[in-house]
């Protein structure tokens, strides 16, 4: 086989493999639109690392549906992590620009990830800051924004976020830190959980430091400013290819 023919053959098979991978990704995201997640890739990563390091850890994780998660928890996470969550399409452009400007100015790298991006990373990828992982995060963020409604993205995020060493999901976090369930979390408890999300290994929601108390207090003020009615915005129609916006066949049919 000539070199050019071999190159064309490799490129053809590369395109086929890439196409199959993309179709498989879409299929998995569609499937996870409806079924509970028994685990996430970050959970697998943490468990594998603990096993290979000789320090096995028992993962705590109990999936609960959105109807069994208190509105306090849902609003606290949005207020603390991503107040534009109901409106953006997966990426907060303003925060990304600010993060780039800060980096160019020599400041410490600041986070600009939305709840959608964090969900994509936790469910499908691994921790780290490589360009490959970031590129894949963009891909999966677009997929879940296209295929999942905002309510589903938030539900999955609350069920896969880490709230302590081996403690994944809001149900396990509520039981571990407050001896209650996700449906019964108060505004105070929910704000403490939201306050430790940037670094749940370093900080403890059940035994909050003065710093976490201040962050939780700020979160509660933001919750009050937004109000519980803010959660209704998760149901609003959005752009992209969200199938909630697809017109019915009746609307498409010509008038008689």
TrEMBL record:
Pathway: Cell wall biogenesis; peptidoglycan biosynthesis. It is a single-pass membrane protein. One of its GO terms (cellular component) is peptidoglycan-based cell wall. Gene3D superfamilies: Biosynthetic peptidoglycan transglycosylase-like (1.10.3810.10). InterPro entries: Glyco_trans_51, Lysozyme-like_dom_sf, PBP_transglycosylase, Pep_trsgly. It is found in: Cell inner membrane. It comes from the Bacteria. The keyword Membrane applies. Peptidoglycan polymerase that catalyzes glycan chain elongation from lipid-linked precursors. NCBIfam families: mono_pep_trsgly. This is Biosynthetic peptidoglycan transglycosylase.
């Amino acid at each position: 086989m000539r070199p050019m023919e071999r190159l064309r053959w490799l490129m053809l098979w590369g395109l086929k493999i890439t196409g199959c991978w993309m179709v498989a990704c879409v299929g998995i995201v569609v499937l996870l639109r409806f079924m509970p997640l028994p685990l996430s890739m970050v959970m697998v990563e943490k468990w594998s690392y603990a096993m290979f390091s000789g320090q096995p850890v028992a993962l705590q994780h109990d999936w609960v549906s959105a109807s069994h998660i208190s509105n306090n928890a849902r609003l606290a996470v949005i207020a603390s992590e991503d107040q534009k969550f109901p409106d953006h399409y997966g990426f907060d452009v303003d925060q990304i620009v600010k993060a780039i400007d800060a980096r160019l100015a020599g400041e410490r790298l600041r986070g600009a990830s939305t709840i959608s991006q964090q969900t994509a990373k936790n469910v499908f990828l691994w921790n780290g800051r490589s360009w490959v992982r970031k590129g894949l995060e963009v891909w999966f963020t677009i997929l879940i924004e296209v295929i999942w409604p905002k309510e589903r993205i938030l539900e999955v995020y609350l069920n896969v976020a880490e709230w302590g060493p081996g403690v994944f999901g809001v149900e396990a976090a509520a039981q571990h830190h407050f001896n209650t369930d996700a449906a019964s979390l108060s505004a105070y408890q929910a704000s403490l959980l939201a306050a430790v999300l940037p670094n749940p290994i370093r900080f403890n929601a059940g035994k909050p430091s003065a710093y976490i108390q201040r962050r939780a207090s700020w979160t509660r003020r933001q919750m009050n400013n937004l109000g519980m009615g803010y959660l209704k915005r998760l149901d609003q129609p959005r752009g992209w290819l969200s199938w909630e916006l697809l017109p019915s066949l009746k609307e498409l049919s010509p008038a008689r």
